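[agent] plan:
  1. take the single chain provided in the ticket
  2. run structure prediction with default settings
  3. attach structure tokens to the ticket
  4. add a short note for the reviewer (M.T.)
[agent] executing step 1
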Amino acid sequence: MQYMTWNIDPILISLGPLKVHWYGLLFALGFIVGFQIMQWIFKRENKPIEDLDALLWFLLIGVVVGARLAHVIFYDPNYYFSDPIRILKIWEGGLASHGGAIGALIGLYLFKRNRSYDYLWLLDRLALPTALLASFIRTGNLFNSEIVGMQTTVPWAIIFERLDTIPRHPAQVYEALSYFFAFGLLLFLYKRTDIKQKSGMLFGLLLSIVFIARLVIEFIKIKQEAYNSDLWLNTGQLLSLPFIFAGLLFIFFALKKREQA
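[agent] step 2 finished; step 3 output follows
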């Protein structure tokens, strides 16, 4: 069987010491498109557009710092702490979605401390661009030929030539599509239903869909941790469980409040 081969150079442009990686470009593009979505939401709901600049920076710093530290601590601490300067090289990849989620929550809280926004209102609206950003990031992982799946014979298997000649599940593509589906669903519900009146529902759906997808897809990924574990679930799955639980709780309480209203 002839499988698709993937051998894209992770570096899009190289000008002397300046290197632009596909991963970094897609990460930045995710924030740019997300910013446009939030502008549309703020105009639609008569919120001050000028607040978005500050919101963007709080979230950008929170996501990058949180995602990077989580990857360093939970996936390959020996590699990074043996040469700490590597921690700063985020353009080479290595961002953990779990840490990014926590960093975003902290950044969002710091943003609203001196502003009159409801925290759940912000979480619900940010659920839309967050799902899209996650899809862009996983596409960046594809260009880096990382987060690949196990060997398989399915017709859509991909040979990542930068790794080996084995046909594998394109796990990063599965995740990118799952997160894009989440974005499409949340956008549809936001525009066509009254779900935005159910405080916490959009955010709960985001957490549930994204991390359930992550939990399931992890079963066909190759090992990402740089250490051994005898547990049935890997690090990514164990870290996903509390987010899934939190998402279901948000949905439950959103529905309960709606019934009581």
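[agent] step 4 note for reviewer: The two ends are 59 Å apart (CA to CA).
[agent] ticket updated
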